[in-house]
Design brief:
single chain, about 400 residues, mainly beta, Ferric Hydroxamate Uptake Protein, Chain A, domain 1, 4 domains, eight-stranded mixed beta sheet, six-stranded mixed beta sheet, 7 helices, 31 strands, elongated
């Protein structure tokens, strides 16, 4: 079946409505029910063959219609009452006015603004009305409406009717009080708090502020943004968060300090000192000595490759062996540092093939000169020098 005037697919520029509905699969030759919506013109309308109906291709016209409700569908219905099924995700479409909306506004976005529709879509009823003297801007339910030219006709989501009831909290006087947002009761006397009811969209680092029929979002201290999106500003808003020339780095939930060499702690407040023993001892006695001067065998400095290299280059003698705070004394094959941190391939630099427990009993780690001071496992009873590590308060 073909008609010379039928043009388009899904969006139609011209042609008989019933034939277009057959082409869209909404009815057959025996007839049927369908809804028609005015749509925004497109640059080109593609012709196709569907359900034995052929449509032609044509170019942009001033009038377009479709059979599917879209987020962009305007409220310029020719009927006084119109029921529509809004899709999800319409919050960002154009809206002009408050309570009464300019007919060029998106019906679905205006419905979210008015509080009669959620973000996930649904069915709404809107009522065509006459031109208003003004269309005022406002922000409600996460939708910002604009003010605009009053020359256009309007629509609302309440049937226009006079009654004697006094509506509180800016409710609209209709057949019943139509309450702003999700205010409740006959006279809108109860304002539902979106902040406590969980119906707001404020960011996790923002404060929700309840208003009459709506809410506002404000980023908390050390965060900036519009309230629905908040970015951290800890470093720029607070001087000297990181001590001893540490570098402050904002994160999604706060900040971190990147410390200079030989400093550690949340704010780089701890200076780490390294002392090399001048008397050879076994591993256990070396650890006892380090503890006696307020520290322990080196652990943190051995995990940090830059610090470890600095110690090797500046403190160690080239032909001597040095105990460090790493062992598998507690459980064979499970190496950990004396501060409890487990050994990984990223926080050690054992020489190739090490640790190998050669001959058995090699349970303590040392820096071995013939291996370019890479880590090696040794017999804990052997005598060697040691590297002590302590925190200077």
């Amino acid at each position: 079946m073909q008609h010379a005037d039928l043009c388009g697919t899904d969006d139609y520029a011209r042609g008989p409505l019933c034939l277009a509905a057959m082409h869209a699969g909404l009815m057959d030759k025996d007839g049927g029910y369908f809804e028609v919506f005015k749509s925004e013109p497109v640059s080109k309308y593609e012709g196709t063959i569907r359900y034995s109906v052929t449509s032609e291709s044509c170019f942009s016209t001033s009038f377009t219609y479709s059979f599917q409700m879209k987020c962009s569908t305007k409220g310029n219905s020719e009927f006084s009452v119109t029921d529509v099924d809004c899709p999800s995700g319409c919050r960002s479409n154009y809206v002009c006015g408050t309570n009464f909306y300019n007919s060029n506004s998106s019906v679905c976005a205006a419905a979210i603004h008015a509080g009669v529709l959620k973000e996930n879509g649904g069915t709404v009823t809107f009522y065509s009305d006459e031109e208003q003297t003004s269309y005022n801007d406002s922000t409600k339910n996460g939708v910002s409406s604009m003010s605009c030219d009053p020359s256009q006709t309007s629509f609302s989501f309440t049937r226009k009717h006079h009654c004697d009831r006094t509506c509180q909290n800016d409710g609209i006087n209709a057949e019943f009080c139509y309450c702003k947002g999700i205010d409740q009761k006959e006279d809108c006397e109860i304002d539902i708090n979106e902040c406590t009811s969980g119906t707001h969209n404020c960011h996790q680092h923002a404060t929700c502020i309840n208003t009459v029929g709506s809410f506002e979002c404000s980023c908390i201290a050390n965060y900036t943004g519009n309230g629905t999106h908040c970015q951290p500003t800890f470093c720029s808003a607070n001087d000297h968060l990181c001590k001893n020339n540490g570098t402050c780095l904002d994160t999604t939930t706060g900040y971190n300090c990147s410390c200079e060499m030989f400093y550690q702690g949340e704010h780089c407040e701890q200076e780490i000192d390294h002392v090399v023993m001048t008397t050879e001892r076994n591993w256990a006695d070396s650890r006892t000595y380090c503890q006696s001067i307020g520290g322990d065998l080196a652990a943190w400095g051995m995990r940090n490759a830059t610090v470890r290299r600095s110690i090797i280059d500046n403190l160690l003698r080239p032909s001597l062996i040095y105990w460090i705070g790493l062992s598998d004394i507690d459980q064979e094959g499970v190496w950990k540092y004396v501060d409890g941190v487990a050994m990984t391939t990223y926080n050690t630099n054992f020489s190739s093939g090490q640790p190998d427990n050669y001959g058995g009993g090699q349970d303590c780690a040392w820096l071995y000169p013939s291996l370019n001071f890479q880590m090696d496992d040794g017999w804990c009873t052997r005598y060697a020098l040691a590297i002590c590590e302590r925190i200077l308060i």
